[in-house]
Give the backbone structure.
Amino acid sequence: MIQLLIGAAHAFCGTYVAGPGEELYNESSQVVFAREGNRTTLTLANDFAGNTADFAMVIPVPPGLDEEGVRLVDPSLIESLDSFSSPRLVEYTCEDLHSWYPPGPRFQLGCTDYMVMATDGMASEGGDADDSVTIEATFSEGEYSFTLVSAEEGDGLQSWLDANGYSIGDEAADMLQDYIDGGSWFLTAKVLIEDPLSSERPLWLSPIQLSYESDALSLPIRLGTLNSTGYQELILYGLTAEGEGALGISNLRQVEIDTDCMLDEELGPWYRGKLDELEDAWVIEHSWSPYHCDPCTPGGTLDPQTVVELGVVESEYPHFSRIFVRYSANQQQDLQLYAGGMYDQTQRRYIQANPDLEAHFRMCDAEEVLAEGGSCEAQWAELDVQAEQQWQEDNEGGGCSSGQSRVALAGLALLAGLALRLRQ
């Protein structure tokens, strides 16, 4: 693959207007799945609402996980992923979509500054369990108390969980047995701190990060369906090493939601309606380099240190994916993930309705552009004349001028996918 990197990654055409609003995903879990080599780093966000004494979490984990493989990270890491990749409303004008090439081979861009990169000691939990349950480790970190448990029998493990305040449902034994038969251990977590107001407001707990070696690319979600009566939603952020490409889910149906279209209504309610239509399905909301966006939200691209903290340490050119998943209690399999080597460049980008652009962009949910709609052709023709005149003036004395550089940069921006010009 040939990747074009243009100086500062924040450059874009068009203007970011707004995101969809916090209420769009207010009941969605968030998980970061980072994969580099044979190592998986899983980061789980916890925005728990309720009495802290009632918080309890059970996670199937690979055997051999130890205290060194469990740590807490700053919530701002996941917040930055959300801000970077959420659906966005943008504003385009005819001038934003205009570009002009000087005479000569298109890739001879004079003085432009660009690079072409070829990248192919807690005490044991209370409550006695039968001999089928083994406490592998107990430890505390931050506001959490953790216990690592292995088991031989699902019934025995369920009894131990019930005795220690982990109520995961009366029908859990068979599902626990499936995990046990697959070789899983279990990490349990409780909150050590007490917050008297936690039942009245969300408690922003530190995200829990697990790092382990594993051949499997899967995300355990089945235990979470035991107490569910409706659909559950998950925002899955994927970070994969160079050469691995975008993340996907093999055992759920992938669907598409309209994008790169003009919207004449509020983004949040329109997009939320599209998400509500998903039934045991997933949609890619963002797939690109973590160091590029078009246009960027106010927070800009991801900081390389954020990528490292989330588990991709050695790869210079990782790929970032954001997947929205909506699944029902009937989902009886964990999510089976794959990295297929595809480098899709997509994001949920919606354009404020503009009469001048009707001949160039569809309205959302429409199949075609308006045949008699407004057009930028006349403005583009004027801009072509201005650009050519400037180019001729700049080249009368030879060498590279600032004007030439501006023209060359405009052409390179189009080549790199930063412009959405649909001029025929």
About this structure: Confidence is low (pLDDT under 50) at residues 1-16, 104-124, 400-424. The first strand starts at residue 2 and ends at 6.
